[in-house]
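Render this sequence as a predicted structure.
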Amino acid sequence: MRIRPRDIGGGILRGFRKILDFVFPQNCIACDDKIQEHVLCASCRDDIGFIRQPYCFQCGVPADISYAFPHEEFVCGVCRQQPYQFDQARSLGFYDTVLRTTIHHFKYRRQMGVLPEMDRLLEKYFEENPDFCQGFTVSPVPLHFNKMKERGFDQAFLIARQVAKISKLPLEGGLLRRVKATSPQATMTRVERARNIKGAFEVNRPELVAGKNILLVDDVFTTGATVNEAAKVLKKKGAGKVHVFTLGRVVVGKDHSAL
């Protein structure tokens, strides 16, 4: 077996980080307890609420108790009344407490050390869902240039890259382009978000979209307005199925303050 210099360098770097973590233990970003590696302690990691069936076949929202023994392909009331443009959406976990803190440290505090933690969560999710989106091409929901310049990185692209690696799917980072700088949507209703995001995307590489099944990746699904608009644009250019995957899912009744 051939050993490449970068493999040796990577191993040395990982070993050095483990030594630093042992000598200078860090604090868990969720509970502030001392930890030896990664950014979450084992207890906080176990507190992340993974979203599992039963959930809406289209938008992926967990089944409410009002649904008596929902079957595998049941569709929630929102999707029955106003179907989305995408075919299916799934999220790793509830956007509350630990998962929300983890995403915020990555997205707003630019802590790239959160990525290995996300890898562990993604690996667990795709181990439980091995057939999810097989045959699809992974593509992130893009940031506008101004937001990219302000933030310094594109969190959706980094998540999409990890999803593609773990699920062994091809990654195409430039299928969509964000051409409209939209207003912050945290306090908007679903209708306001849909109006705000309308016309925000263009297909950048139509030759890679036509006839392809696309897995759109973003950090958080709130009302679905953003991924819905992106899916609509992709389908107008001939995309086959468009599925959505996000790390977090905002669910009414869950603690999702400070979006």
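Summary. The beta strands are 26-27, 34-35, 88-94, 137-140, 176-178, 201-203, 214-221, 242-249. The mean pLDDT is 86.
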